[in-house]
Amino acid sequence: MSTVRIEPERIGPERIGPERIRHWIGGKPWQGEGARTGDVFDPATGRVAARVDLADAAVVDEAVASAGEAFTRWRGASLAQRANVMFAFRELLNARKGELTAIVTAEHGKVLADAAGEVQRALEAVEFACGIPHLLKGGFSENASTKVDVWSIQQPLGVVGVVSPFNFPAMVPLWFVPNAIACGNTVVLKPSEKDPSAANFIAALFAEAGLPDGVLNVVHGDKPAVDRLLEHPDVKAISFVGSTPIAKYVYETGTRHGKRVQALGGAKNHMVVLPDADLDLAADAAVSAGFGSAGERCMAISVVVAVEPVGDELVAKIVDRVRALHVGDGRRPGCEMGPLVTGAHRDRVLSYVDNGRAEGASLVVDGRSHAIDGEADGFWLGPTLFDHVGVDTALYRDEIFGPVLSVVRVPTYDDALEVVNANPYGNGTAIFTHDGGAARRFQHEVEVGMVGVNVPIPVPVAYYSFGGWKDSLFGDSHAYGPEGVHFFTRTKVVTGRWPDPAHGGVNLGFPQNT
Ligand code: NAD
């Protein structure tokens, strides 16, 4: 097992400082000089904490070549060898999850407890991939025709690209990378340029776990890097997660270049509260799912659909909870919600708060005046609540991706269902009720990929698969779990016969099963 030292100045949150974050190609940090770099901020202070290299097409080509060379050997590695690497990586990640948690908080801004939750869900995806020998078992039909057997085998695709968003810098790469490499592929990962260090930490840890050089490469960058991956003839598949316009672009461009693509997009997730619901439970859930990670989750609840007459009482309970939230630097004890990821993103979210009232909604809690436990120049916006939001407003329609929760009031269950189903997104949704029949009807009728019953963020466990419907996913496969294994393999079916002395001689007819 090779041991790769993870250079401390690139991984510790307090040591990211002015360091340069490099690509990881061929099992080590890239030593070239790139023309462009990007700023990586500490969102809780507003200061530039590091500069990340932004790849041009030549660097992407270098990473793809490294992955291509590694593929010829890695696809021949036994299932036992691949599983052993995955088990070793799981042990290392578990032992060092505190460091990865700190990296996530330092660059993304989410509070430490939330970052720890992200890393834990990532570990579950790794654990699923440890079972790869079982997952790649094919079918076998003895004597499908007389003395003829038929069996199926699942083989890797080759070099695959993974492009991930800023909001889960550890978990989303690990939704894909473990399954991809356990299936025998080699990977070029292009993480978000806003919080790139988690990907390097993961790559170095995989190297330490015994993954051969070149099987996992990390290329940092923005549009030019993604575009090169999309058109590179040696990249066979792309797993993308990000906003809907880019997901659509990635799906269309990648498939036009002959690749298999799964592109997960944005969301506007509704939580329906029926009149018989436990309103304390519903209010807790709305606040947790609306403001956790400052609303920067693709499964965040951004719209509460209150079925009257619960509106007034529910909003009052939400207001009490929102006002009590402790907002500040995610490293400080007791903080429940951190800053937004960049100043530019915070300003975009603020524009919806400014416009919301002009669009006719009632601003019940204004996050601009919330107390902040952090440095003044951090990218802050406190939790914000709008009531009586119309479905024809930008406040309702757009994915804001910040701590802004809207309440839409409707008279009946049917009206609530109509609101959810008319929305172009279909990532997650939830219903809060004591009525099992209503919940069952909702799960049957709602046009959304992931549904919670009295559960506000129904992210499937690692042995199911994650994916939305409609504008929340372009492609045919959901992420991780069984659909992930399916995405990263192609099936071959073999029909075989071992002749015995009784074989029947020449026959020019089309084979029939007898
Ligand atoms: P984004 O679309 O801006 O970026 C995602 C990735 O695409 C990044 O790696 C980025 O570098 C790259 N990219 C950005 N612009 C590009 C362009 N013009 N051409 C090619 N590549 C480009 O998304 P984000 O702001 O990093 O992440 C937040 C978004 O991701 C939200 O919309 C959120 O809902 C979504 N998201 C979805 C899921 C899901 O599972 N459906 C999960 C997490 C996040």
TrEMBL record:
Record PROSITE patterns: ALDEHYDE_DEHYDR_CYS (PS00070)
UniProt cross-references to InterPro entries, sorted A to Z: Ald_DH/histidinol_DH, Ald_DH_C, Ald_DH_CS_CYS, Ald_DH_N, Aldehyde_DH_dom, MeMal-semiAld_DH
Gene3D superfamilies documented for this protein: Aldehyde Dehydrogenase, Chain A, domain 1, Aldehyde Dehydrogenase, Chain A, domain 2
Chain segments annotated as coiled-coil in the UniProt record: none
E.C. number(s) listed in UniProt: 1.2.1.27
Aldehyde dehydrogenase domain: residues covered: 33-494
One of the record's GO molecular function terms: methylmalonate-semialdehyde dehydrogenase (acylating, NAD) activity
Pfam families found in the cross-reference section: Aldedh (PF00171)
Top-rank lineage group of the source organism: Bacteria
Top enzyme class: oxidoreductase
Keywords: NAD, Oxidoreductase
Name used for this protein in its record: methylmalonate-semialdehyde dehydrogenase (CoA acylating)
Organism annotation: Saccharothrix longispora
Organism lineage: Bacteria, Bacillati, Actinomycetota, Actinomycetes, Pseudonocardiales
